Amino acid sequence: MEWSRSTSTCITAAVLLLLPRLCSPAGDKLTRGESLLPGETIVSNGGAFVLGFFAPSDAAPGRQYLGIWYNNITVTASTVVWVANRDAPVIIGEGSGGNSSAAPSLALANDTSSLVLADASGRVVWTANITAAMSSGSATGSTAAVLQNDGNLVILSPNAAKPLWQSFDHPTDTFIPGMKVGLRRRTRDDGVDGWRIVSWKGPGDPSPGSFSYGMDPNTSLQLLLWNGTRIYWRGTPWTGYPTVSRYHPATGTVIYVAVVDGEEEIYTTFSVNEGAPPTRYVVTGAGKFQLLSWNRNASAWTTLESLPGRGCSPYGSCGAYGYCHHTQTAATCRCLDGFEPASRAEWSRGVFSRGCRRSQALAPCGGGGEGDAFLAMPSMKVPDKFVLLGNMTSGDECAAACRRDCACEAYAYASLRSSSAKGDIARCLVWTGELVDTQMIGAFWGVTAETLNLRVPAGFTGKKRGTKTLKILLPVLASVLIVTCSVLVWFCKCRSKGKRRSSESEKKLVPGSVRASSELGEGNPSEDLEFPSIQFSDIVAATDNFSRECMIGRGGFGKVYKGTFLGGRVVAVKRLSKDSEQGIEEFKNEAILISKLQHRNLVRLLGCCTEGAERLLIYEYLANKGLDAILFDSERKSLLDWPTRFGIIKGVARGLLYLHQDSRLTVIHRDLKASNVLLDAEMRPKIADFGMAKIFGENQQKANTKRVVGTFGYIAPEYQTEGVFSVKSDVYSFGILVLEIVSGVRISSTDDIMGSPGLVAYAWKLWKEGNASDLVDASIVESCALDELLLCIHVGLLCVQDDPNGRPLMSSVVSILENGSVSLPAPDQPAYFAERNSKLQGKGGDVETSKNSMTMTVLQGR
Ligand SMILES: *[C@@H]1O[C@H](CO)[C@@H](O)[C@H](O)[C@H]1NC(C)=O
Ligand SMILES: *[C@@H]1O[C@H](CO)[C@@H](O)[C@H](O)[C@H]1NC(C)=O
Ligand SMILES: *[C@@H]1O[C@H](CO)[C@@H](O)[C@H](O)[C@H]1NC(C)=O
Ligand SMILES: *[C@@H]1O[C@H](CO)[C@@H](O)[C@H](O)[C@H]1NC(C)=O
Ligand SMILES: *[C@@H]1O[C@H](CO)[C@@H](O)[C@H](O)[C@H]1NC(C)=O
Ligand SMILES: *[C@@H]1O[C@H](CO)[C@@H](O)[C@H](O)[C@H]1NC(C)=O
Ligand SMILES: *[C@@H]1O[C@H](CO)[C@@H](O)[C@H](O)[C@H]1NC(C)=O
Ligand SMILES: *[C@@H]1O[C@H](CO)[C@@H](O)[C@H](O)[C@H]1NC(C)=O
């Protein structure tokens, strides 16, 4: 760590505070009696951020601002994340260098502990106001302003539990990890009632511009970008998810966005994966809300997201009852189902402001509106100007409430079971006015999209068939999408230690020598970590030149071999397909990240190798290989008695919990399935291929359909997209796995199971009839403990519920499995079952096609 200046300089100053001598600050803090002058800085303990005076590159000469910027990111100018005196620059006069008595300065006020910025003449231009309530009794000699390493400037007093003031409560145009955007439900004694990001006027002028980003004060359920007082762009209304994550391959950054809905405040905040480059959201002077990440390779900021996008994404672009149809390449206006353009002529000219009107009038209202029906439009950003109805417990109730109100045009329902602090278990939105600013966003925002249920006349036929086909196709489309994003493109440019002698690299893997894990420091992630690299020639020797005999598995990513090194150490070697195109930097990050995840229920990565086009990963070898090889083998499945199976279920749950929560990162597996659960000699489970989410680059994948489609049955229903994943999609896969382990039946089994169209439907049917214990694999009936069995089936069914919010978190699952549970909610009927069932009774043709295509893809997978 370097201090920006010497600690002993004291200078005479006659500023506002009338102290005889003020000293310069040292390190990361400014204490009472010290003052910060232009040219001096405070550096956070950790070196990430700097506080000091700066002049924006385009600013009028002599104008300076007090701000915080990244310590060592210099593009053309420093990247400023916070400005104190946004609209009141201090002017640096001629003699400012030598005449220190005439310089502006920042100091802590004697009496109130407020931070005070005074200009050269001693006039106060800015203060960090500390309210009387906060400062009473806490202003003492040891009060200090500290710049924390997350970029937050805080005023701390030893007498106060909380900071007296913090810059994170007074954001400017930048939103960095740890900050909040949202609202206080009531103002606290610090006088802060919420957090809003406000743009600069322009590149040279930090004073507040016209664009701002914050939470909608009317509903607290959505985030808005304003141009002045007008809404310019609107985010998707919150559906109750606690977190979502997105992976950006361009800089190898994973963004975790959380919504915190508490008693006192509701806000959104975000974090990034460990080792990720500096990442920030900014509202620009031109009205864009952008996510930027530092590209270390290019020494430049990379724009990862920029909103509003092109075309019709600004607020209300498509008029009333229109919606913006968003695809990867273009965005254009369409009318909601059951509506047509108000003026076809204008519409065809690309003028959408008049929107759409009903193509078929609703029946006259009265008698409770039984005459009308609802038409579902999935994957929508639902319209603005909704009314939130409380006290709802189900989608049916929400629909009934809308039906009762003659003016109600639509409703949308989301379950809040896993997220709400206030006891509401459902979120029911209804619309009684025009439907504005609707968007179809299926391809990108995953769990944040929802189904809009539109009121239509009872006999409405319009596009109904179309949507029905869509519904049937969705599972198929989903699997295709997953395919495109799921080929493992590892490659390992592990510091090519070409000169290292083979005996040396071997030593790392022979028993008793230093293990890979202990070489990977837990400390500073940016440290250049020693990651074991193994010579290709040694691997050739260990696997008998990748002989057929040594091959123990294959998948879309390549083949897996058993290898034995000279010292006798047995490993599994994954030889990756040669056409991967992932960035070296990204790969390195990911490999280091994965090697840091250590848990007894996760397979350990020991090392890797690159030479020429070869990319190999070395894992610990597990004697019993994949769970699928035993569980679904009629000869061998009895090796897994009930206690063993229960142990496997609990072990997988613990491993998944570690990935989701306990590893400090949120890692979403995305491909949990029986063949990715490996068993050691004692039949203890270890999850393999975790962290693949991090390695996916959405763009550069070359799909190998066979492998990925094989996992079709494990994909959560809301998983229609890539780009957004929640821990709840893993929970879904876990639920499927539990049902498989209990029943010994493959989820991809194509036979009707006892007359039910699939394993989930069968389990649900038995559960509903009170015969859940019949699900158990016939080969283990004897060893079976009925209470454990029923508990597992119950948990499995809760995990495969259609609504991600209804699924438990892995922390609950582990606790339920470990301790049992007296009261679990009853599971909802799984969607796949309901859907297929209705199709079976409906149009025969559709059923055949969709069922056949699913079946085929599944068969290819094996
Ligand atoms: C910033 O500083 C860290 C540690 O001092 C260093 O590893 C990193 O390369 C620096 N980044 C830039 C952009 O200079
Ligand atoms: C510079 O300092 C001298 C005393 O050292 C003082 O008389 C003078 O007023 C100062 N200049 C300004 C511009 O304040
Ligand atoms: C500031 O504190 C000093 C002693 O620490 C005291 O002499 C002085 O009067 C105080 N000034 C004000 C304005 O409170
Ligand atoms: C601090 O409080 C004073 C007086 O209440 C007010 O004039 C000033 O604008 C406030 N400063 C800030 C930065 O809010
Ligand atoms: C909040 O509601 C009022 C009254 O309906 C409306 O005028 C205002 O524009 C709304 N504000 C936002 C941010 O939607
Ligand atoms: C923002 O609003 C102003 C004034 O209403 C308008 O002139 C400007 O074009 C708007 N900017 C954008 C990007 O819409
Ligand atoms: C990083 O830089 C190297 C060359 O300096 C280039 O080959 C590589 O593609 C870059 N990676 C990324 C992710 O930009
Ligand atoms: C919710 O329901 C309870 C009892 O069912 C009732 O007492 C309460 O008033 C309801 N609240 C609202 C906001 O409708």
Highlighted features:
globular, five-stranded antiparallel sheet, 862 residues, Agglutinin, subunit A, binds 2-acetamido-2-deoxy-beta-D-glucopyranose, alpha+beta, disordered C terminus, 5 domains
Mind sketching the topology for me?
Elements: E1 10-12, E2 21-23, E3 29-31, E4 35-36, E5 41-43, E6 49-54, E7 63-74, E8 78-83, E9 90-91, E10 105-108, E11 115-118, E12 124-128, H1 132-135, E13 144-147, E14 153-156, E15 165-166, E16 174-175, E17 181-184, E18 194-195, E19 197-202, E20 205-215, E21 223-227, E22 230-234, E23 243-248, E24 253-261, E25 265-272, E26 279-283, E27 289-295, E28 300-307, E29 322-326, E30 331-335, E31 339-341, H2 344-348, E32 356-358, E33 372-381, E34 387-389, H3 395-404, E35 410-415, E36 426-431, E37 438-440, H4 442-445, E38 450-457, H5 464-484, H6 502-507, H7 516-519, H8 536-542, E39 551-555, E40 558-564, E41 570-576, H9 584-596, E42 605-611, E43 614-620, H10 627-631, H11 642-662, E44 677-679, E45 685-687, H12 692-695, H13 705-709, H14 727-743, H15 759-768, H16 786-799, H17 810-819, H18 831-841, H19 844-861
Helix pairs in contact: 5-19, 11-14, 11-17, 14-16
Bound molecules: 2-acetamido-2-deoxy-beta-D-glucopyranose (8 copies).
Binding site for ATP: 574
EC number: 2.7.11.1
Family: Belongs to the protein kinase superfamily. Ser/Thr protein kinase family.
Give a structural overview:
Its EC number is 2.7.11.1. Keywords: ATP-binding, Cell membrane, Disulfide bond, EGF-like domain, Glycoprotein, Kinase, Membrane, Nucleotide-binding, Receptor, Serine/threonine-protein kinase, Signal, Transferase, Transmembrane, Transmembrane helix. It holds the Pfam family B_lectin. Residues 505-529, 841-862 are annotated as: Disordered. The protein is of the alpha+beta class and 862 residues long. 22% of the residues lie in helices and 27% in strands. The protein is built from 19 helices and 45 strands. The strands form eleven sheets. An eight-stranded mixed β-sheet has the order 30-29-37-33-38-35-36-34, covered by helices on one side. Strands 5, 6, 7, 8 and 9 form a five-stranded antiparallel β-sheet that branches. It is globular. The two termini are 55 Å apart. It binds 2-acetamido-2-deoxy-beta-D-glucopyranose (8 copies). Residues 126-127, 129 line the site of one 2-acetamido-2-deoxy-beta-D-glucopyranose.
